[in-house]
Amino acid sequence: xxxxxxxxxxxxxxxxxxxxxxxxxxxxYFSLVPPGEAPAPQISxxxxxxxAYAALAVPVAVWxxxxxxxxxxxxxxxxxxxxxxxxxxxGTGREGSLADAAAxxxxxxxxxxxxxxxARLLRR
Length: 124
Known about the structure:
Elements: H1 10-32, H2 45-64, H3 69-90, H4 98-123
Protein backbone atom coordinates (compact mmCIF):
# COMPACT_ATOMS: atom_id res chain seq x y z
CA UNK A 1 0.00 0.00 0.00
CA UNK A 2 1.34 3.46 -0.90
CA UNK A 3 1.79 6.11 1.73
CA UNK A 4 -0.45 9.16 1.54
CA UNK A 5 1.15 12.01 -0.40
CA UNK A 6 2.83 14.61 1.77
CA UNK A 7 1.04 17.91 2.03
CA UNK A 8 2.59 21.20 1.00
CA UNK A 9 4.05 23.38 3.79
CA UNK A 10 1.51 25.62 5.54
CA UNK A 11 3.11 28.82 4.19
CA UNK A 12 2.80 27.52 0.61
CA UNK A 13 -0.82 26.52 1.17
CA UNK A 14 -1.65 29.95 2.65
CA UNK A 15 -0.02 31.69 -0.31
CA UNK A 16 -1.95 29.42 -2.67
CA UNK A 17 -5.22 30.21 -0.86
CA UNK A 18 -4.61 33.96 -1.17
CA UNK A 19 -3.63 33.58 -4.82
CA UNK A 20 -6.71 31.47 -5.54
CA UNK A 21 -8.98 34.01 -3.86
CA UNK A 22 -7.47 36.90 -5.83
CA UNK A 23 -7.72 35.04 -9.13
CA UNK A 24 -11.31 33.99 -8.33
CA UNK A 25 -12.27 37.62 -7.66
CA UNK A 26 -10.63 38.79 -10.90
CA UNK A 27 -12.25 35.99 -12.94
CA UNK A 28 -15.61 36.71 -11.29
CA TYR A 29 -15.37 40.43 -12.01
CA PHE A 30 -14.45 39.97 -15.67
CA SER A 31 -17.14 37.32 -16.04
CA LEU A 32 -19.94 39.53 -14.73
CA VAL A 33 -19.01 43.04 -15.86
CA PRO A 34 -21.06 44.22 -18.86
CA PRO A 35 -19.41 43.46 -22.22
CA GLY A 36 -17.23 46.26 -23.49
CA GLU A 37 -16.46 47.67 -20.03
CA ALA A 38 -13.39 45.49 -19.54
CA PRO A 39 -10.48 45.15 -21.96
CA ALA A 40 -10.08 41.69 -23.41
CA PRO A 41 -7.24 40.27 -25.50
CA GLN A 42 -8.16 39.67 -29.11
CA ILE A 43 -8.09 35.89 -28.92
CA SER A 44 -10.81 33.28 -28.89
CA UNK A 45 -13.29 33.58 -26.04
CA UNK A 46 -12.85 29.88 -25.32
CA UNK A 47 -9.07 30.26 -25.00
CA UNK A 48 -9.60 33.09 -22.48
CA UNK A 49 -11.94 30.85 -20.47
CA UNK A 50 -9.52 27.91 -20.62
CA UNK A 51 -6.52 30.01 -19.50
CA ALA A 52 -8.44 31.77 -16.71
CA TYR A 53 -9.65 28.52 -15.16
CA ALA A 54 -6.31 26.75 -15.59
CA ALA A 55 -4.70 29.70 -13.78
CA LEU A 56 -7.32 29.48 -11.03
CA ALA A 57 -7.06 25.69 -10.66
CA VAL A 58 -3.30 25.66 -10.01
CA PRO A 59 -3.37 27.56 -6.69
CA VAL A 60 -6.64 25.86 -5.72
CA ALA A 61 -4.99 22.45 -6.18
CA VAL A 62 -1.95 23.48 -4.12
CA TRP A 63 -4.21 24.98 -1.43
CA UNK A 64 -6.35 21.82 -1.20
CA UNK A 65 -3.26 19.61 -1.13
CA UNK A 66 -2.16 16.49 -2.99
CA UNK A 67 -4.73 14.17 -1.42
CA UNK A 68 -7.67 16.34 -2.48
CA UNK A 69 -7.03 17.04 -6.15
CA UNK A 70 -10.45 15.77 -7.21
CA UNK A 71 -12.06 18.18 -4.71
CA UNK A 72 -9.92 21.03 -6.10
CA UNK A 73 -11.02 20.13 -9.62
CA UNK A 74 -14.67 19.93 -8.59
CA UNK A 75 -14.53 23.27 -6.74
CA UNK A 76 -12.99 25.05 -9.71
CA UNK A 77 -15.41 23.48 -12.22
CA UNK A 78 -18.40 24.37 -10.00
CA UNK A 79 -17.15 27.95 -9.64
CA UNK A 80 -17.01 28.25 -13.43
CA UNK A 81 -20.46 26.71 -13.86
CA UNK A 82 -21.82 29.03 -11.17
CA UNK A 83 -20.44 32.08 -12.93
CA UNK A 84 -21.96 30.94 -16.21
CA UNK A 85 -25.31 30.68 -14.42
CA UNK A 86 -24.79 34.09 -12.84
CA UNK A 87 -24.10 35.59 -16.27
CA UNK A 88 -27.44 34.28 -17.48
CA UNK A 89 -29.25 35.82 -14.49
CA UNK A 90 -27.29 39.03 -13.85
CA GLY A 91 -28.88 41.20 -16.51
CA THR A 92 -25.55 42.75 -17.52
CA GLY A 93 -25.88 41.85 -21.18
CA ARG A 94 -23.90 38.65 -20.83
CA GLU A 95 -25.21 35.18 -21.57
CA GLY A 96 -24.34 31.92 -19.87
CA SER A 97 -22.95 29.38 -22.28
CA LEU A 98 -22.47 25.62 -22.10
CA ALA A 99 -19.46 25.95 -24.43
CA ASP A 100 -17.91 28.50 -22.05
CA ALA A 101 -18.62 26.18 -19.11
CA ALA A 102 -16.90 23.36 -21.00
CA ALA A 103 -13.85 25.56 -21.68
CA UNK A 104 -13.84 26.51 -17.98
CA UNK A 105 -13.97 22.84 -16.96
CA UNK A 106 -11.24 21.82 -19.40
CA UNK A 107 -9.00 24.60 -18.06
CA UNK A 108 -9.71 23.55 -14.47
CA UNK A 109 -8.88 19.91 -15.21
CA UNK A 110 -5.68 20.94 -17.01
CA UNK A 111 -4.59 23.18 -14.13
CA UNK A 112 -5.17 20.50 -11.49
CA UNK A 113 -3.47 17.82 -13.61
CA UNK A 114 -0.46 20.09 -14.11
CA UNK A 115 -0.08 20.37 -10.32
CA UNK A 116 -0.43 16.59 -9.99
CA UNK A 117 2.19 15.95 -12.70
CA UNK A 118 4.55 18.55 -11.24
CA ALA A 119 4.27 17.02 -7.78
CA ARG A 120 4.96 13.54 -9.18
CA LEU A 121 8.05 14.76 -11.01
CA LEU A 122 9.37 16.51 -7.89
CA ARG A 123 8.90 13.37 -5.78
CA ARG A 124 11.17 11.31 -8.07
